[in-house]
Design a protein that fits this description.
two-stranded antiparallel sheet
Length: 425
């Protein structure tokens, strides 16, 4: 493998390998999303389709078909089917969640209206079933129709479970398997089915897709609290504001004392949120190790995905699928790293040199920016960068003059300056 290939992300390498197939999928998508009588349909669909995205799910169908030696035309139909189902669920989700942003752009329901989003989503579901039938495979129809029903079931379960503090990790995983993993596993499974793969290989592909989908959603929920808004296309804390009990919150609630439990009841169950609640929620996640425990769960699912591939034949696509499982969980490190405030200049005391002023930050000295000049003997003015969730009410202020509220808010940021070291003013 060349150095340029090594430097590419797994899904980019897969996209290059499947370039011709993906072009055929895009042509088919544009052809089937057209409508002679309702121009609103292609308008709404094109807005979401043209927003980009990795097209990961249809690529999984194409990749697994290639892995199993398929050389017919219907993997293109199935990949388009998977993308139509996914796009339909996004249109419906944005209405249910009252979202205003998707992939960094305004959502369709915001630009048009809820009715248009729901009805166009219904249209895409119908188109997906037409494409399924064209393959002539009842087994494919069974897999994808079951996946569609499971997705809807998962979304309904989330409505009842997401704001109930009694929700367990078992119920959360049931939701995830419905709303996310069901389409991943269907996408990989039908690739093997259309290729005529053995039952053992089809089962392995299902297992891979299920594990990859679960890992993907866990990481997505984790990034809601420590991700890069430009990279995710979502606002940090959206799940908290929408009162969704995801794995990090479930883990923190399980370890909460009486005071913390009252906080979760107010913010999640009752929806009475106020300024500073998100920062406090993040501080509780850090306090109980909920974010690290969630990362561990995601890595475990990625390992399960890679193990499922072990029985499948050797193929360049197999290596890409293996790397993809690793990359899904590496997003945690890559995106969280962007939020580490290398520019952070929170001070524990008046420094006598520039190294003292950054001694409390987590990044190693080699990654920290140097402040001022080596001869400086006065404390530099604190710089509060976007990567840090703390915002002082009267910036710039020396940290040893922060109020109790300011210290509390700072405890949620990635700098890890102990709040107790700042004296109340």
């Amino acid at each position: 493998m060349s150095n340029s290939e090594n430097s590419q992300k797994p899904h980019d390498r897969m996209a290059s390998f499947l370039k011709d197939d993906m072009e055929a999928v895009n042509v088919l998508i544009r052809d089937r999303m057209a409508s002679k009588h309702a121009p609103r349909i292609p308008e709404v669909t094109a807005h979401l389709v043209d927003a980009g995205g990795k097209r990961l799910r249809p690529m999984l169908t194409l990749a697994t078909a290639h892995l199993c030696g398929y050389d017919g035309p219907y993997h293109i139909h199935l990949a388009a089917t998977v993308e139509f189902i996914h796009t339909a669920t996004l249109l419906h989700d944005d209405v249910v969640d009252e979202s205003g942003q998707r992939r960094g752009r305004p959502t369709a329901n915001l630009l048009w209206d809820n009715k248009s989003s729901v009805l166009v989503g219904d249209y895409l579901f119908s188109r997906s079933f037409q494409l399924m039938v064209e393959t002539g495979s009842l087994r494919v129809l069974d897999i994808l129709s079951n996946a569609s029903a499971t997705i809807a079931e998962g979304e309904v379960l989330q409505l009842t479970a997401s704001q109930d503090l009694r929700t367990t990790e078992e119920i959360y995983l049931q939701v995830v398997r419905g709303k996310t993993a069901a389409l991943f596993s269907a996408a990989t499974e039908v690739g093997g089915v259309i290729a005529g793969a053995s039952d053992a290989h089809v089962a392995a592909l299902f297992e891979y897709g299920d594990a990859l989908g679960v890992a993907f959603q866990i990481v997505d929920d984790l990034l809601d609290f420590q991700g890069d808004e430009k990279a995710t296309g979502k606002n940090v804390g959206d799940d908290f504001r929408e009162r969704k009990l995801t794995m990090p919150l479930i883990k923190a609630v399980a370890k909460a004392d009486a005071e913390e439990h009252a906080f979760w009841q107010r913010t999640i169950e009752k929806g009475k949120q106020q300024d500073g609640d998100l920062e406090h929620a993040i501080s509780l996640l850090h306090k109980h190790g909920a974010l690290e425990d969630t990362k561990t769960a995601a890595r475990s699912e990625a390992a399960r995905a890679k193990a499922a591939l072990s029985t499948l034949p050797e193929h360049p696509v197999k290596d890409m699928l293996t790397d993809l499982a690793d990359y899904v969980v590496e997003r945690i490190t890559l995106r969280a790293a962007r939020r580490v405030p290398f520019d952070c200049q929170f001070l524990l005391r008046q420094p006598t040199n520039q190294d003292d002023s950054i001694a409390a930050c987590r990044p190693p000295p080699s990654q920290r920016r140097r402040l001022g000049t080596a001869q400086s003997t006065s404390p530099p003015t604190p710089t509060f960068v976007p990567a840090c969730s703390f915002r002082p009410t009267e910036a710039p202020l020396e940290p040893w003059r922060w109020t109790a509220q300011e210290r509390l808010r700072h405890s949620a940021c990635h700098c890890a300056v102990p709040p107790a070291t700042a004296q109340s003013r």
